[in-house]
Amino acid sequence: MHKIAKILSSQASQSAIYKALTGFFMFLSISVLVRFLGEIGYGVWVLVFGFFQWGLYFDFGISNVLKSKIPELISTQKEHLIEKYVSQSFFLTLIISLLFLSIATVFIYTNNLSSFFNINLEDHFLKSIFILNAIFFCINFLLSINKSLYIGTLNPKISEKGATLTQVIFFIALLLILTFFKNFSITHKLLWITIINGSSNLFINGYYLIAFLKDKKIKLFAFNRFERDITKQILQNGLKFMLIQLFMVVVFFSDPYFIAYYSGPKDVSIFDVLNKLYQLPLLIISSGLASFWPFFAQKFHENDKNWFFSTIKKFNKLFLIISLGILLFSFIIKCILNIWVGKEISDAVKITFITTMSIIVLTRIFINFYTNILNGANRLNSQLYVMGCTALIKIPITIYILKNDFGLDGIFIQLLIYLLVWSMIFKNQSISIIKKLKN
Fold first, then answer.
1. CA distance 419 to 359
2. How far apart are CA 143 and CA 190, in angstroms?
3. Would you call 160 exposed, middle or buried from its count of C-beta atoms within 10 A (0-12, 13-18, 19+)?
4. Which helix (H) or strand (E) holds 394?
5. For a Cys staple, 297 with which of 63, 71, 130, 366, CB 3.0–4.6 Å?
6. How many CB atoms lie within 10 A of CB 188?
7. CB atoms within 10 A of CB 436
């Protein structure tokens, strides 16, 4: 018990530190990008880069299955099966990557992207930049399985360390480009940013995947054929995770496209900058909470009810401190925006945006803690139903909000209402599951 607490504390704190560094360099990178590309150019980059982030949620939940399954195998002393789960997961991810690249290529070359995304750039250039992003994305999609492997083996801080190094490399390369290629056209700037972003991710993901495989002596293709039971477990549980991820994409990441269509890239920039700024505390805290996931899985299979309730009490105390921190952060956010992205965007961010976003962030932190319990226990149905219903109604309501000129205020308030409902349901479900454990 003491050993687990010590490891968890170390992993949680170190993960949070690395995430803080990642957020810090992301913060600096966005400031440079806005100045380098301009407000409209940055809005274009958000649309291009964000388009492929949707693909992260089409992995059939394989990465999340590994986060829960590996701790379970360790807890039940079935470590000999880890290699089979890892190798088959990697091969399935490879198939998905190739499929995604094929679909993306067909979409890119059969559509007028300038018209589709409301972007005032040559369609030929947009096709080139989209296909290059697609290739980088698919390679990194495959290599990034290393993050789930480190998390599953109760070492989540390594996953966050990799993300930090990636962001540092991207920031340094961005400064070099800003120094030597400042007068480049917007098309050349977007091309260079695509290359350094994709390359930095590829290098770090590749390095950490190889390091993990060598350290654990795992062969990626350590099977002659698919073992039906293992593949069935991966895809069966993974399908639930994937659906949850897809619903989250609709809820959290679809807004910029509708804002771009009904309002234009300028409002996308305002929306994205505010979201990115609040991502800093959200990612730091969520990273620390995410390190609990494999430990929740392990303690669930050990039926340690007392440990769960003790951890929840500690979280409740911590949440009060976090709330005060977010409140202080919100008071100085206008000053930060002025320094970070300049007066024009800062003046466009209303106090109502800041107030609503601060409550949204706190609610998401609260939800993250309890969904980690549900994920660790592999109890996914409540998330599946609740998020599915939310995703179903969100798009038509978002369109209604923007068409009737409720603007960004309406977008933020809509999200907050959904999250408050989620927080009550997921907390109650988690407590119910814990109470049923046998000591």
1. 10
2. 24
3. buried
4. helix 381-403
5. 71
6. 13
7. 9
d(CA 306, CA 308): 5
Rounded CA-CA distance 134/49 in Å is 9
Cα–Cα nearest to 70, from 80, 60, 58 = 80
Evaluated on CA atoms 31, 165, 7, 430, the torsion sign reads positive
CB 391 within 8 A of CB 383: no
Q: Taking a C-beta distance cutoff of 8 angstroms, is the pair 227, 88 a contact?
A: yes
Please report where in the chains the tokens 């309501």 appear, as a residue. 397
- Compute the distance between CA of residue 110 and CA of residue 127 in angstroms, rounded to an integer: 10
pLDDT, tens digit (0-9, with 9 covering 90-100), for 421-436 = 999 999 999 999 888 8
Q: pTM for this structure?
A: 0.69
What's the pLDDT tens digit per position in 64-114? 777 777 777 777 777 777 788 888 888 888 888 898 889 889 988 888 877
- Residue found by looking up tokens 């966050």 in the block: 160
Please report, rounded to a whole number, the percentage of residues in the chain having pLDDT higher than 70: 91
Note whether 301 and 72 are within 8 A (CB). Answer: yes
- CA nearest to 134, candidates 191, 59, 205, 198: 198
Whole-number Å distance between alpha carbons of 92 and 104: 18
Distance in angstroms (rounded) separating the CA atoms of residues 159 and 299: 21
250 Cα distance to chain centroid: 13
The tens digit of pLDDT for each residue in 352-408 reads: 888 898 999 999 999 999 998 898 888 888 888 999 999 999 999 999 988 887 878
Q: How many residues does the chain have?
A: 439
